[in-house]
Specification:
The protein is α/β, with parallel strands linked by helices. 36% of the residues lie in helices and 15% in strands.
């Protein structure tokens, strides 16, 4: 039985196979409309989510399966003190596969060790968010045609942003990848990412504070929001939240074939006047999230569609 805790749980070959399956689902949705009939997905979300939870539910429903679960810890037995280990053992009696989001790093891993069904990490604290990373990789491959020979600008909260950390881990496995890390001093990428991932693997990168200084060099601009829930101090959050705002003026500095991505939700780091720019890919990205989660459910349940 296979679980997904990190993008690195999949080899490059397995990842390419998964993304190819997702592209086939996009092109031929009816072919997969009954693939998971009689199967149930449990969504165990201990912290709020819109896109991730609903895209998992949409994915399973699109496959002809059913969904059960909870959308906050308050509406589960966690509020009575039940452990993650006990919860997943019970859920294993009811469902065929589980997607779990939890504020504590490592909680989905603990669940996977006690589970009788495949567990997908749908985000654990500031640690990993592998299905967002799969969504990002599918978006890049679909819109740019490749996952190598790319210069990627990561902008905003690079300290707490789990989507950024996961994406870096995933992309360094492809040749000729370069990162431009755009953030204020206080929100720079953690030293363990800089030293143990980028430098250790000889991946070229540079760190800049001004978004304008990076725009002309980018194939992809990956914007992130400054996350209020990751700050201990409200004053620090207020000071940082408007540090970067992408608007039409800044987009004029970019290449015509650059794409703008964002894991969403956005607050005000991308102006709405960018939404109509053909390079804005963040709503397409959300749609790709459904296709890739459909492919992942099929893969983990070992369902094949002829």
């Amino acid at each position: 039985m296979q679980h997904l805790m990190s993008p690195l749980d999949l080899s490059v070959e397995e990842l390419d196979k998964l993304l190819t399956l997702a592209n086939d689902i996009e092109k031929h949705p009816q072919k997969y409309a009954h693939a998971c009939e009689g199967k149930k997905l449990a969504t165990c979300f201990y912290e709020p989510s819109t896109r991730t939870r609903l895209s998992f539910e949409a994915a399973m429903l699109n496959l002809g399966g059913n969904v059960l679960g909870f959308s906050s810890a308050d509406s589960s037995s966690a509020s009575k003190g039940e452990s993650v280990s006990d919860t997943i053992r019970v859920i294993s009696c009811y469902a065929d596969i589980c997607a779990m989001r939890h504020p504590k790093e490592g909680a989905p891993l603990v669940a996977s060790q006690r589970s009788g069904i495949p567990v997908i990490n749908a985000g654990d604290g500031g640690h990993q968010h592998p299905t967002q990373t799969l969504t990002d990789l599918l978006t890049i491959r679909s819109l740019k045609g490749r996952l190598d020979h790319l210069t990627i600008g990561l902008c905003g909260d690079l300290k707490f942003g789990r989507t950024v950390h996961s994406l870096i881990h995933a992309l360094i496995r492809y040749p000729h990848i370069k990162f431009i890390l755009i953030s204020p001093e206080e929100l720079r990428v953690p030293s363990y990412i800089r030293e143990d991932v980028l430098e250790k693997n000889h991946v070229p990168f540079q760190e800049v504070e001004r978004l304008e200084d990076a725009m002309a060099d980018l194939d992809i601009l990956y914007m992130t929001r400054v996350q209020r829930e990751r700050f201990f101090n409200e004053d620090d959050y207020v000071r940082m939240k408007d540090f970067y705002i992408l608007n039409k003026k800044k987009m004029a500095l970019a290449r015509e074939d650059m794409i703008v991505m964002h894991p969403l939700p956005r607050v005000n780091e991308i102006s709405v006047d960018v939404d109509d720019d053909p390079r804005a890919a963040y709503f397409k990205q959300a749609q790709y999230g459904v296709y890739v989660r459909m492919a992942l459910i099929l893969t983990l349940l070992e369902v094949t569609v002829c």
